[in-house]
Specification:
CATH architecture of the largest domain: 2-Layer Sandwich
Largest sheet: 7 strands, antiparallel
CATH topology of the largest domain: Beta-Lactamase
Number of domains: 2
Radius of gyration: 23 Å
Distance between the termini: 58 Å
Number of strands: 20
Structural class: alpha+beta
Shape: globular
Helix content: 25-40%
């Protein structure tokens, strides 16, 4: 590969771009109002060039956001074209017309100009705790159309030449619960965009616009070449796998995802033909979301250190029939797309396990278990919305156990600390730990799920929970046992316990509590091949009961 830019300069510019994205990521995190952003880091930053190609993404970004930001920028350029001006700021969230994946993710982009010419865009995306709709938190299960999930925003110009469109902002905030919190988070996103524009201009001044644009081309082309080189190492052949979602929260059960991978040389095709038609409930995926599943699964197996950019997207072909659960059409509801993406990743890894058994993990928790508590603080009288998505078990690896209680797959947000919950909301966390026996047995075992028990303090609130892998256990590989399922349980003041539905929305009274248990993960290899030392460590850790150990490791 020949280039007009030397490797040292290219590496310096590349690291400069990453530095810009990371600084913007931290700025947004530290400026945000809501715990979901400032504590859980449910946000991402990206830089794109003037052609709309994603060039760099911050290291803390979520894999699921890669296609959302490219989708926004593509929609922005198509709608506004040559009318984009310096100081403009664009906002969107809609999955069907603006490249998003679900409505709570507000997506911002600001153009960068040099000598009157557009040279790139700085984008960020953040998951807001509420964007209106039928249920507090905008993430409740069982909603059957996109309008019930929150305010739909096409690509709009929120700022023109640096001036805020206040009337538009007023409309947006009026349609969202907790408008002050939303305003604070939006201002944090605006600040991160402005900082990114300043930093990208500084890079252009330092190295020259020509060098910067050449670096953009090289980053994309080299990433494509690197990905294709890794694809070429996969044995040629056809690999198929399928799996199901528990349900859609309404009427569909065992929603099927079917994948066939055809690989020849450095060409790979992911064909989702045979997956179920889109369903009434809000578990559908737009194409962008399915694209993120494929890229995450493939990159994680082949080259985890490969940067997320347009070059990775260009190396893969995806077939996803329109109108199916993996490529839905309006007005399909999509709020719970993260759970569905986790299932998509399971399917990608299940297929690749046949070709690369030593590189693929068993099924992880396969969920993005969400818990929303919303009500009015009895001390202040002000409304609140506490939203969290909890991790679970990571699948066992060929040579190592899976990790316990982590976000696995397409999300990499953190679990919210107990202290943050109890300081910010009128809630008390009664317990927080691992779910014993939830890691699948095997030569290497699966990770454990998380248990959190929450009760409202001195008031009645609403609880909305969404779970997956509550019916179908996370599968093991090559003789490994499946992991444990998740569940929601209501505990009454008397101590009586009642298991709730996988997707539930209900009032929660003072004195009552909700147990949230997330799924574990599958094991890898036959349990009887686990070493005696590892068995003894598991038993001594308290993570597994003697009954579980005796049942799965007969020695």
């Amino acid at each position: 590969m020949t280039s007009s830019i030397d490797p040292i300069t290219l590496e310096i510019v590349w690291n400069g771009l990453l530095s810009v994205t990371d600084e913007c990521f931290i700025t947004l995190m530290r400026s945000a109002y809501s715990t979901n952003i400032k504590e859980r880091h449910d946000h991402s930053i990206a830089i794109a060039d003037a052609k709309g190609r994603l060039i760099a993404q911050s290291q803390g970004s979520l894999p699921i956001h890669i296609s959302s930001m490219t989708g926004l920028i593509a929609a922005l350029l198509a709608k506004y074209g040559d009318s984009i001006e310096e100081g403009d700021l664009f906002l969107a969230n809609d999955p069907h017309v603006a490249g998003g994946t679900h409505l709570p993710d507000l997506n911002f982009a600001m153009p960068v100009f040099e000598d009157g010419r557009l040279i790139g865009l700085v984008a960020n995306i953040a998951h807001h705790a509420d964007v209106g709709g039928a249920a507090a938190g905008s993430m409740s299960g069982g909603l059957n159309e996109i309008w019930k999930e929150g305010l739909r925003i096409p690509v709009v110009r929120l700022m023109r030449r640096g001036q805020l469109a206040q009337e538009l902002m007023d409309i947006i905030l009026l349609n969202m619960r907790l408008p002050e919190e939303r305003k604070g988070d939006i201002n944090a996103q605006i600040a991160a965009c402005r900082l990114g524009v300043e930093r990208l201009k500084a890079l252009s001044h330092r190295y020259g616009l020509g060098t910067l644009e050449t670096a953009f081309d090289e980053i994309v082309s080299r990433s494509t070449a690197r990905m294709r080189a890794e694809i070429a190492k996969i044995p040629d052949g056809r690999y198929a796998f399928e799996d199901v979602l528990d349900d859609d929260g309404l009427e569909a059960k065992d929603v099927r995802f079917k994948l066939v991978i055809d690989k020849s040389g450095d060409r790979i095709v992911f064909d989702w033909t045979g997956s179920d038609p889109q369903v009434p409930g809000n578990v559908n995926l737009t194409f962008n979301a399915t694209q993120s599943c494929v890229f995450f699964g493939l990159k994680a197996v082949l080259d985890p250190d490969l940067p997320n950019n347009q070059g990775v997207l260009d190396a893969v072909e995806i077939i996803a029939p329109l109108g199916t659960v993996v490529n839905c059409v309006a007005p399909a509801a999509v709020a719970l797309r993260a759970n569905t993406c986790q299932r998509g990743i399971d399917v990608v890894l299940g297929a690749l396990a046949q070709a690369l058994p030593d590189k693929v993990i068993a099924a992880a928790n396969g969920a993005n278990t969400s818990a929303v508590f919303a009500g009015n603080d009895p001390e202040t009288g002000r409304p609140y919305v506490y939203l969290e998505t909890l991790g679970g078990g990571m699948g066992a690896r060929a040579t190592k156990d899976g990790k316990d209680g982590v976000q696995a797959g397409i999300t990499n947000t953190s679990n919210l600390p107990v202290e943050a919950i109890e300081m910010e909301y009128p809630l008390r966390v009664l317990a927080y730990g691992f779910v014993e026996d939830s890691g699948g047995a095997g030569r290497t075992r699966g990770g454990l799920g998380i248990r959190r028990i929450v009760t409202p303090v001195g008031h009645r609130c609403e609880f909305s929970g969404v779970g997956e892998r509550f019916t179908h256990r996370p599968w093991g590989l090559f003789g490994g046992e499946p992991g444990g399922t998740g569940r929601f349980v209501l505990v009454e003041p008397s101590g009586a316990r009642r298991q709730l539905a996988n997707k539930v929305r209900m009032p929660l009274n003072a004195g009552e509590s909700v147990v949230v248990e997330t799924p574990g993960a599958g094991g890898y290899g036959p349990p009887d091949e686990r070493t005696a030392d590892a068995v003894a460590e598991d038993l001594g850790s308290g993570k597994f009961t003697p009954e579980f150990m005796a049942r799965h490791y007969r020695r």
